[in-house]
Design a protein that fits this description.
The complex is a heterodimer of chains A (486) and B (488).
Chain A: H1 8-16, H2 22-40, E1 43-46, H3 48-63, E2 74-78, H4 105-112, E3 116-121, H5 155-162, E4 169-172, H6 179-185, E5 188-191, E6 212-216, H7 219-229, H8 247-250, E7 259-263, H9 264-268, H10 273-288, E8 292-296, H11 304-319, H12 338-349, H13 352-364, H14 371-394, E9 397-401, H15 417-421, H16 428-433, E10 437-445, E11 448-455, H17 461-474
Parallel strand pairs in A: 2-3, 7-8, 7-9
Antiparallel strand pairs in A: 1-3, 4-6, 5-6, 5-10, 9-11, 10-11
Helix pairs in contact in A: 2-3, 7-17, 11-13, 11-14
Chain B: E1 10-21, H1 60-72, E2 76-77, E3 80-81, E4 83-87, E5 97-101, E6 107-115, E7 121-133, E8 137-139, E9 148-150, E10 157-163, H2 170-186, E11 199-209, E12 219-224, H3 227-246, E13 254-259, E14 264-270, E15 280-281, E16 288-289, H4 292-299, H5 306-317, H6 321-327, H7 331-344, H8 348-368, H9 380-391, H10 397-410, H11 414-421, H12 429-442, H13 444-451, H14 457-468, H15 475-486
Parallel strand pairs in B: 12-13
Antiparallel strand pairs in B: 1-10, 1-11, 2-6, 3-16, 4-5, 4-15, 6-7, 7-10, 8-9, 11-12, 13-14
Helix pairs in contact in B: 2-3, 5-6, 7-8, 7-9, 9-10, 12-14, 12-15, 14-15
Classes of the chains: A alpha/beta (486), B alpha+beta (488).
């Protein structure tokens, strides 16, 4: 059995059994990155020296009997997490020269768990995009078909895991940025409940929606990693002080009797037939494993895309104001005066999609428009949250598609932002309501993966992970690898 | 332009926005220290610098201090208040937005009373008081074509206290500002240091014809940091507005700056140039939720407030309202005064004597030397020691002033000065009579004139005897004995 076809759980078992060392494992992945990254463009920074140093430390810890369940497991971080001493570009020219002087809480916790840092992954600029085409470092390719997008914004992390250039990677999900790419490259991704994982050290896009999570080969792997990442952080006021369950142990929660809620609105709009058929088949499979099915409805859900594209740009327009060319990041050459410094530094540093969202956000917050846009969007958001809450009185887990179609061609939607935004139609609801949600591979259309989405009530990560795990114990879609991954 | 010109027929309307820097040890959203005067940027961490990925965490002490102000002014403390972002670009504003409270402030609907010149009291409404962070400082005194930025002040907690437009003159505005200044220091939530910018104010000024129903267009004078300048700036602005209106012009809403050197206000920006701050609730911070138990616990920590203390002083010590106000202007001064009263014996006479001295000679030297109460060269105990010698007639009030100056200059006790300089009052009737006899013998002409009815010469004899005794004769005894001896 080759190393990289194994799941994180299997690699961890191999390390524990001293079947191979962390250094050997790390060298194996570094070699794979070197060979395949030029074609995929999944990594923007590769850190071989750091990786080998981490691996040696992990091996030493194991030799000293101090190894934990993740000691020696290599991983990649989305380039949105600040890493002390290693560039954090956020996929932007603005931060092409930015080296953070500190580690994000997620980075710190996973390092403390003994993981090995392989490098930083490509992403849509400032996490704004659904195709990974807005990156300053160029588009990421889908390992299943290099002409296709891997989804976004965590497209680099998704492609790296799908092609097994890394056993697992971190991501962030503001409107679907973990789940949609996970679906498009055929891996498992989880966005936890808002507040479950600290946002400290994660470059902010839309603060009230951003949440860190995991892209991995399986639900079991997501459970392992999430356990190490999650928990209260006094440096993030929105993180929640609540005990972290043993997600790995709770994977065994039975599927029997679990009420699956089929969201009517998810099947009505824009869902491609072949994708829909695979999602229906996956739901039938879950039923055959003991779950029951109920029809539920969140009537305001169709408003989630417009509400999101008001709230997220509003917050981003303010969050990105700190990139002014003064203290860090890109600064234009020879500014004539302060206004010129601002205009050219930001004009040169940001790409088109980021500028579009800053302008949209600035507009919706302006005097005279605030009530009509921002306030109304917040009301829609409250409405959607209330409807989800109602749905969860009838169902334990909501199920539906992750994305309306499989991966599309690179360049196909890049000039049409509205069509691009509609890619997030099924994922945004969970962000607006702060709910935990996953995408699980459930089949292929023309050789391209399709994802099934599972959404749980607040802090019910264990419930959706267990459902996904039960499904994966009965299916092998998550074990299939693209040619480049074998 | 005379500041008093053309006031007849006009009513002045003023509201103040006071920025009080809260005396927390660390910043409002980060753990950096807030000590004044540190080397530039030595008190700015990644949060203060607005680094990518960092997040604000609210300092609970700042909240407690704001609540303290709220309960002390009889205000409503909001059970739920919200931090918002005020968005604008400036190099000393690291995040590109200031975190402030906008629609949901922590304190609303309070009031304070001020004492007017005619002795009446006036209630001034406090619309709101909200928490916010201060910006950094831009320094333009470096090399040409370059500006420096010091972010030590960025993130310092401020309480912005907004009054109703209830003030009707510059004098009232100053009285109110002083009242707030006194209160925040009593509450120990602000050091009140105006030179260091810990306490500063913006004044909104407008004028209208007497009896007019609507307010006139207002101008805001920014960032004035002394009581004297507030008064001068407002008076200048009143004069300017009335002059414009009387010429048939109209006032445009503007933000103006006061130039103390020229004693005038100048336009900073007009309404058309005003920023659209695009306020919205800060998603990085949870709403501040306060329950009644917390508010009551803060209320229980309130000290005796200035008005309560002044009322007690008037009642217990028999002081005039004005004097009671002066002596309670700060907790330190009030404590000093009370210590002196106790040291002199605590009765009504002691209270009166102590009040005269503390407000008189003692305050004069304190002001002359520019000292705080705590740094006074004569302690409350020492001043009481001096006043005891006045009460027990060891020295006269006049000699006491001389002794006091020595005490202040040399840091010695009253008794030591009296002994060293031989200033003990002569109360021996025989000695005083002997001195009177000698003066009478030396001035036969004056004696004859006095006895012929020239009463005014009595003072002459008092002076001569005092001169002969180096001022040490007990004045009351001297008067009595002299009157007897001079009688024909």
């Amino acid at each position: 059995m080759t190393l990289h076809t194994r799941s994180v759980a299997e690699l961890a078992a191999g390390l524990a059994a001293k079947e191979f060392s962390a250094v050997e494992l790390t060298q194996h992945y570094l070699a794979r990155i070197e060979a395949a990254n030029p074609a995929l463009n999944a990594f923007v920074t590769i850190t071989p020296e750091r990786a080998l140093a981490d691996a040696r430390k992990a091996d030493a810890a194991r030799a000293a009997g101090r190894a934990g369940p993740l000691t020696g497991v290599p991983l990649a971080h989305k380039d949105i997490f600040c890493t002390d001493g290693i560039r954090t570009s956020c996929g932007s020219r603005m931060l092409d020269n930015f080296i953070a002087p500190y580690d994000a809480t997620v980075v710190e916790r996973l390092q403390a768990a003994g993981t090995v840092l392989l490098g930083k992954t490509n992403m849509d600029e400032f996490a704004m995009g659904s195709s990974n085409e807005t990156s300053y470092y160029g588009a990421v390719k889908n390992p299943w078909n290099l002409r296709k997008v891997p989804g976004g914004s965590s497209g680099g992390s998704a492609a790296a895991v799908a092609a097994r250039l890394a056993p697992v990677a971190t991501g962030t999900d503001t409107g679907g940025s973990i789940r949609q790419p996970a679906a498009l490259v055929g891996i498992t991704g989880i966005k936890p409940t808002y507040g479950r994982v600290s946002r400290y050290g994660m470059v902010a896009f839309a603060s009230s929606l951003d949440q860190a999570g995991i892209l991995a080969p399986s639900a079991e792997d997501c459970a392992l990693l999430l356990g190490a990442m999650a928990g209260f952080d006094p440096r993030d006021s929105t993180s929640v002080d609540r005990p972290v369950p043993d997600y790995a142990a709770e994977l065994r929660l039975p599927l029997k009797g679990v009420r699956l809620g089929l969201l009517k609105e998810f099947l009505e709009r824009g869902l491609e037939a072949a994708t829909g058929a695979l999602v229906q088949a996956a739901i039938a499979r879950l039923q055959s494993l003991g779950a029951t099915l109920v029809d539920v409805s969140c009537p305001s859900l169709p408003l989630s895309v417009p509400a999101y594209y008001v709230v997220a740009p509003a917050e981003c327009s303010s969050n990105l104001s700190r990139f002014d060319g003064i203290r860090f990041g890109h600064r234009c050459k020879e500014p004539r005066d302060l206004l010129d410094l601002y205009r050219r530094s930001r004009g040169e540093g940001f790409g088109a999609e980021v500028k579009r969202r800053i302008m949209t956000g600035t507009y919706v917050l302006s005097a005279g428009y605030y009530d009509a846009y921002y306030l109304k969007a917040q009301k829609v958001r409250s409405l959607i949250s209330a409807e989800f809450k109602q749905a969860f009185t009838q169902a334990d887990v909501l199920v539906g598609p992750t994305a309306p179609t499989p991966a599309f061609d690179i360049g196909a939607k890049v000039d049409d932002p509205i069509t691009m935004y509609l890619n997030d139609i099924y994922t945004i609801g969970a962000n607006l309501a702060g709910l935990p949600a996953m995408s699980v591979p459930c089949g292929f259309v023309d050789g391209l993966p399709v994802g099934l989405q599972l959404i749980g009530p607040h802090f019910a990560e264990s419930r959706i992970l267990a459902a996904a795990h039960a499904y994966q114990c009965a299916t092998d879609f998550h074990r299939r690898l693209p040619a480049s991954g074998t | 332009m005379s500041s008093a010109a053309g006031r007849d027929g006009w009513e002045v309307v003023i509201g103040l926005e006071i920025h009080a820097q809260l005396a927390t040890r660390s910043k409002i959203f980060s753990g950096s220290a807030t000590v004044y005067g540190a080397a530039p940027n030595s008190q700015a961490n990644l949060v203060d610098l607005g680094y990518p990925g960092v997040l604000p965490v609210l300092n609970g002490e700042a909240v407690r201090m704001a609540v303290k102000f709220g309960v002390a002014t009889g205000a409503t403390v909001a059970p739920r208040s919200v931090f918002a972002r005020k968005n604008y670009f400036y190099p000393d504003l690291p995040k590109g937005y200031q975190i402030s409270q906008y629609e949901r402030p922590i304190v609303e609907d309070g009031s304070l009373e001020i004492l007017l010149d005619d002795g009446t009291r006036k209630t001034i409404g406090i619309t709101r008081a909200h928490l916010e962070e201060d910006a950094g400082k831009s320094l333009h005194d470096g090399p040409a074509n370059a500006s420096g930025i010091d972010l030590n002040r960025a993130g310092t907690p401020l309480l912005e206290i907004v009054s109703e437009p209830d003030l009707r003159s510059a004098k009232e505005a100053v009285a109110y500002m002083k009242k707030v200044h006194t209160l925040v220091r009593y509450l120990e939530i602000c050091d009140g240091n105006m030179q260091e910018g810990s306490f500063r104010c913006d004044a909104n000024v407008s004028v209208r014809r007497l009896g007019a129903a609507k307010f006139g267009t207002r101008c805001e004078i920014k960032n004035v940091n002394s009581f004297r300048y507030v008064e001068k700036a407002i008076n200048y602005e009143i004069g300017r507005q009335i002059a414009v209106l009387e010429r048939g012009g109209s006032i445009t809403q503007q933000t103006r700056l006061y130039d103390a050197a020229k004693d005038e206000t100048r336009v900073m920006r007009s309404k058309e140039e005003a920023n659209d701050y695009r306020y919205f609730p800060d998603p990085d911070l949870l709403p501040v939720a306060l329950d009644q138990t917390f508010i009551d616990a803060v209320r229980a920590t309130l000290p005796e407030l200035p008005d309560e203390k002044a009322a007690r002083f008037a009642r217990s010590y028999g002081l005039q309202a004005y004097d009671a106000g002066v002596l309670t202007a700060s907790r330190e001064l009030a404590d000093y005064y009370e210590a002196v009263v106790r040291g002199v014996g605590g009765d009504a006479a002691a209270a009166k004597l102590a009040a005269n001295w503390v407000m008189g000679d003692w305050s004069a030297l304190l002001n002359r030397d520019g000292l705080d109460v705590g740094a006074a060269k004569v302690s409350a105990g020492a001043l009481a020691g001096l006043l005891r010698r006045v009460v027990d007639a060891t020295i006269s009030g006049k000699i006491a002033k001389e002794v006091f100056e020595s005490m202040w200059a040399e840091g010695v006790e009253a008794d030591a000065v009296i002994a060293a300089k031989g200033l003990r009052q002569i109360t021996d009737a025989g000695a005083i009579e002997a001195a009177i006899d000698a003066v009478m013998a030396a001035n036969p002409q004056q004696l004859a004139d006095y006895r012929a009815g020239k009463d005014k010469l009595f003072g002459f004899f008092v002076g001569q005897v005092m001169k002969a005794t180096q001022g040490k004769a007990n004045p009351a005894q001297l008067n009595e004995l002299l009157r007897k001896k001079l009688a024909p």
